[in-house]
Amino acid sequence: MEVERSFKSLNMDKVIALRKQLRELKGVLVAYSGGVDSTFLLSEARNVLGEKVIACTNATSSTPKRQLEIAQRITRQLGIRHRIIHAEELQVKEYAANPANRCYFCKNSLYANLKRIAQEEGIPNVLDGTNADDLKEFRPGRKAAEEHGIKSPLAELGFTKNEIREYSKENDLPTWNMPASPCLASRIQHGTPIQKNQLIAVDEAEEFIRSKGMPIVRVRMLGHEARIEVPKQDVKKVIEHQSHVKKLLEKIGITRVSVNPEGYCSGSMNEALT
């Protein structure tokens, strides 16, 4: 049975349209990262379709450990069946080579696996949490979504990131103010082959910095140098921990660790591409 809810201070038009679309789909498997967008989509799907919803998370070398833990916790809280798969992207040689369109090869592998699982479960549709703002960015994975017939209702209905955060806050979803957490491979400079030990080290370094009270952080790998990015107000604070981060990264051949004085910039590794 559909659970009717209202967002007291927000325009409901898009939410109503989303619920209508979900109702017509009858059953969905949601590609679930545990982030803001996919959590909102999953919550709405659960409330419209009930048990005809499955969340599926791909846990691989590129997945931050904390993100998998968040995804598991939220699906338990929402009472949604959660399948975890281990379709390792590094086994796809085109992905591991880390070209500019690396994300295409990741998503192509992922969506093939999700469609297989949906078929096994008798679920007719696979959804992802792409939003309208994502369509303005360099997203080679979108081509794979189109090729596999993956539906992106949030993007289709024009939901922006800020709107999703507002709707999530109004509906008491714990992800409403969660920082973005893209895959760990996004920290590796394009053209540099991706290795598992690099991803593990980056995850450890970022988690260490988060433990010091800086939740938004990227440790970007540029050859033998690593560059730490945090919001500008945290730059002085993170410099205090720069030497420890270097020790964590020396095991993968990093000889120098710098801090970007301009602060965190989302997607900065793609600037040369766009």
Keywords:
42% helix; 4-stranded parallel beta sheet; 274 residues; 11 helices; 3-stranded mixed beta sheet; 12% strand; single chain; globular; alpha/beta
The radius of gyration computed from the alpha-carbon positions, rounded to a whole number of angstroms, is 19 Å
Count, helices: 11
**N-to-C span:** 46 Å
Query: Looking across the biggest beta sheet, what order are the strands in?
Result: 3-2-1-4
Q: Estimate the global geometry from the Cα principal axes.
A: globular
Which consecutive residue ranges, at least 5 long each, have pLDDT under 50? none
Structural class, by secondary structure, is alpha/beta
Q: Biggest β-sheet, characterized?
A: 4 strands, parallel
Mean pLDDT: 93
Beta-strand content? 5-15%
**Helix proportion range:** 40-55%
Helix and strand element order:
HEHEHEHHEHHHHEEHHE
Assembly classification: single chain
Total number of beta strands: 7
Can you tell me about this structure?
- The chain has helices at 13-25, 36-49, 65-78, 93-96, 102-121, 141-148, 153-156, 161-170, 196-211, 235-239, 242-249, and strands spanning 28-31, 53-58, 81-85, 125-127, 218-222, 225-229, 256-259.
- It is of the alpha/beta class and 274 residues long.
- The strands form 2 sheets. The protein has a 4-stranded parallel beta sheet with strand order 3-2-1-4, with helices on both faces. It has a 3-stranded mixed beta sheet with strand order 5-6-7.
- Helix 1 packs across helix 2 and helix 5 (102-121) packs parallel to helix 6 (141-148).
- The longest helix has 20 residues, at 102-121.
